[in-house]
């Protein structure tokens, strides 16, 4: 018998409608969702709280619970903020995975930056626990590799297993207090964005040979691996000519131009812009910013890096000192106040249109001394407000030679199919390199070391016209 959810009367199991009130009766329960296994390359973070046994001996159980609760929430928040997920808690250790269920090209860098954020969060937790006379410490291991993940749709845990997980755990166990150890595979992916110190190869339980490890000292704003720029640009003559033409128009007409370079990851967008910047010569002010795919306060993040560069704001400058430098740069209190608000240097709140106005005036003030090239990378991650600002500069700027250069992946056109079609704006879509151009890239990289034609052909086929893949 099936009970009606409306009137409560019982009905025969074959009834689809209640025989008393006509309400549809619940059908059969949907079949259970079946998990499936996948192999993925991920970055694993193990972070273990040290000295918890000693804490348990001297703290009241309720206080101990509060201490641990604050700590674990702070760690989990940093992991989530950088796009990772907590896989599980093992005693006092947190295991997090970056790259499940969705992989990103910068998962390793996200993981490393999350670890730095976790150390900063730990300092904040310790400050809040000072009244208990408690100072927490942890240690962290980070490793990248292939795992087998048992994916359960809708579940919080993905159950990743594999040697990469084991090595991350062993690196954590070997790390000193409040230190972060990176595995060699992780370092290869983030090497240009971190400062590390090599430590003695570690004898890790379960490993037949010593394992290389590196102590993380700091991270920078640079992306993980810097591209080669010491070889000639190949196969982009048409696009380079278009950029030079746009720059010439901005200078000649003293007006803004916007060019968006669109291509797959590794297609050479940034390399193309580097070539243009080298050709425009001296007397040109270059400012550069990058859109971020995650994090807090990222709407105007490209403006943050542009302003810090132009005003020579250092990382250790106080907010007061930074605001003074901004005022000295722009020479106008109203503009400076709004720039400070947009870039997180003050807690003041202004309407978005006023922030966009101030950001445009910032570029115009720079352009009063000569042409400005403002580069905004990865606008496929940009917030709508940032895209509106670019178009605002294009439409409203007068008497100022400003070339706005944006880079993007094809995702941008899926969300904004009309992007780049307004007056003064254009988009350049980078096609794959021809086989001949890919072969020339190989020749430029190999120099005098002649490679067999069979090897060159193999690389060309595998790279499919992507210059980054040719380099790798």
Topology record:
Elements: E1 2-3, E2 10-11, E3 36-50, H1 52-58, H2 61-81, E4 85-90, E5 93-98, H3 107-128, E6 137-151, E7 160-161, H4 163-174, E8 180-183, H5 184-190, E9 194-202, E10 211-219, H6 237-253, E11 256-262, H7 269-280, E12 285-290, H8 301-310, H9 319-330, H10 333-342, H11 352-367, E13 372-377, H12 384-396, E14 402-408, H13 411-415, E15 425-429, H14 435-446, H15 453-463, H16 467-471
Parallel strand pairs: 6-8, 11-14, 11-15, 12-13, 13-14
Antiparallel strand pairs: 1-2, 3-5, 3-6, 4-5, 6-7, 8-10, 9-10
Helix pairs in contact: 2-3, 6-7, 9-10, 10-11, 11-12, 14-15
How far the N terminus sits from the C terminus, by CA atoms, comes to 66 Å
The description of the largest β-sheet is:
8 strands, mixed
How many helical stretches? Answer: 16
Low-confidence stretches: none
Mean pLDDT: 87
**What overall geometry do the principal axes of the alpha carbons give?**
globular
Structural class: alpha/beta
The percent range for strand residues is 15-25%
- What fraction, in percent, of the residue positions are helical? 40-55%
Rg from C-alpha positions?
27 Å
Report the count of strand segments. Answer: 15
Descriptive notes:
This protein is α/β, with parallel strands linked by helices and 472 residues long. It contains 16 helices and 15 strands. β4 and β5 form a beta hairpin. α6 (237-253) crosses α7 (269-280) and α14 crosses α15. The termini are far apart. The model has no long low-confidence stretch (mean pLDDT 87).
């Amino acid at each position: 018998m099936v009970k009606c959810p409306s009137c409560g009367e019982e009905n025969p199991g074959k009834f689809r409608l209640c025989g008393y009130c006509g309400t549809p009766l619940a059908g059969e329960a949907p079949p259970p969702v079946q998990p499936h296994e996948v192999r993925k390359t991920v970055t694993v973070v193990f972070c273990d709280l040290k000295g918890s046994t000693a804490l348990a001996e001297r703290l009241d159980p309720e206080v101990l619970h509060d201490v641990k609760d604050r700590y674990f929430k702070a760690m989990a928040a940093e992991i989530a903020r950088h796009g990772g997920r907590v896989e599980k808690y093992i005693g006092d250790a947190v295991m997090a995975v970056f790259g499940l269920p969705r992989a990103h090209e910068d998962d390793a860098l996200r993981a490393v930056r999350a670890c730095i954020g976790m150390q900063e969060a730990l300092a904040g937790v310790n400050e809040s626990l000072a009244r208990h006379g408690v100072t927490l410490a942890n240690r962290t291991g980070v490793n990248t590799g292939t795992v087998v993940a048992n994916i359960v749709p809708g579940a919080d845990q993905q159950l990743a297993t594999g040697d990469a997980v084991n090595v991350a755990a062993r690196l954590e166990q070997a790390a000193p207090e409040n230190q972060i150890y990176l595995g060699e595979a992780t370092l290869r992916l983030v090497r240009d964005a971190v400062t590390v110190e090599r430590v003695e190869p570690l004898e890790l339980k379960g490993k037949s040979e010593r394992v290389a490890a590196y102590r993380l000292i700091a991270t920078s704003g640079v992306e993980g691996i810097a591209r080669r720029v010491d070889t000639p640009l190949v196969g982009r003559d048409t696009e380079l000519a278009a950029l030079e033409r746009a720059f010439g128009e901005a200078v000649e007409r003293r007006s803004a131009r916007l060019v968006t370079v669109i291509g797959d990851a590794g297609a050479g967008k940034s390399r193309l812009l580097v070539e243009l910047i080298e050709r425009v010569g001296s007397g040109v002010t270059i400012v550069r910013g990058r859109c971020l795919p995650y994090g807090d306060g990222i709407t105007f993040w490209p403006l943050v890096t542009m302003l810090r560069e132009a005003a020579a704001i250092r990382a250790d400058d106080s907010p007061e000192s930074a605001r003074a430098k901004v005022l000295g740069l722009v020479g106008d209190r109203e503009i400076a106040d709004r720039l400070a608000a947009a870039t997180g240097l003050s807690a003041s709140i202004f309407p978005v249109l006023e922030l966009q106005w101030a950001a445009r005036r910032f570029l115009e003030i720079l352009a009063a001394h000569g042409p400005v090239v403002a580069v905004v990378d990865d606008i496929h991650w940009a917030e709508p407000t940032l895209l509106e600002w670019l178009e605002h500069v294009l439409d409203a700027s007068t008497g100022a030679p400003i070339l706005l250069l944006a880079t993007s992946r094809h995702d941008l056109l899926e969300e904004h199919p009309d992007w780049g079609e307004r007056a003064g704006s254009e988009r350049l879509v980078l096609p794959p390199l021809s086989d001949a151009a890919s072969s020339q890239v190989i020749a430029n990289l190999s120099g005098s070391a002649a490679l067999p034609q069979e090897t060159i052909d193999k690389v060309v086929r595998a790279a499919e016209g992507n210059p980054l893949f040719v380099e790798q």
